[in-house]
Amino acid sequence: MAGRKKDPVQTNATRITLLEKSYELFVEKTIEKVTMADITKACGLSNVTVYRYFKTKPQLVVETATWKWQQFRKENLTVALQGVIKDATAAQLFEFYLDSFIMLYEKHRDILRFNQFFNAYVKSENIDEHMLQPYKELIRDIKDQFHVMYTRAKEDLTVRVDESEEVMFSTTLHIMLAIVTRYAVGLVYIPNGDFDAKKELIVQKEMFLDRYVIRVEKGK
């Protein structure tokens, strides 16, 4: 007798439960310290069920990272569309791109902490490129959005294009992501008196704007 067909809705719900619980544990304890047994127990599922969805821990870790970053990308694009980004100047697109990192720090410090654990885990486990492909597609998506800005800058001349797109993207991505991550995990100098992380992040943003945005003086 043939087995019962799987309910796709239930199957997807179980998968999401696994990703959510895994993410919570990874952020709380670090990825290295969480075992598949910990995840099985947290989800209230059998070992057989868990391994039916994710055959190895590295696979689960990469899919968790991809799923979580996809959620942030959707949220970010929603904000972009509300701001009528399609009609924006290159300078406005560039500022929105920089603001995305600040929004990530303000609303999703857990993602930044997780990302630091994720990078360390990928290196320690020597996870192959094929398994990382879905995660890397997200970086390409961000790069594609940056390309839209850079292409528009060639037309409206509101952002410098004398520096290559690749260098500009790499510089801004790595510096902004590194800075917001350090704030998120607490690896920062805390001065005496008032401390406002967002104000400091805005200073970094303004430094990039000063470097790349072409200011047109009034009357010219």
The overall strand count is: 0
Unreliably modeled segments:
none
Query: What is the CATH fold-level name of the largest domain?
Result: Tetracycline Repressor, domain 2
Q: What's the tally of helices? A: 9
- Structural class category: mainly alpha
Task: Note down, in words, how this protein is organized.
- This protein is mainly alpha-helical.
- The protein folds into two domains: 1-55, Orthogonal Bundle (Arc Repressor Mutant, subunit A); 57-212, Orthogonal Bundle (Tetracycline Repressor, domain 2), CATH 1.10.357.
- 74% of the residues lie in helices and 0% in strands.
- The chain contains nine helices and no strands.
- It has helices spanning 8-29, 36-43, 47-53, 57-82, 90-107, 109-125, 129-156, 165-185, 197-212.
- α1 crosses α4 (57-82), α6 packs across α8 (165-185) and α8 (165-185) packs antiparallel against α9 (197-212).
- The chain starts with 7 loop residues before the first helix and ends in an 8-residue tail after the last helix.
- The model has no long low-confidence stretch (mean pLDDT 88).
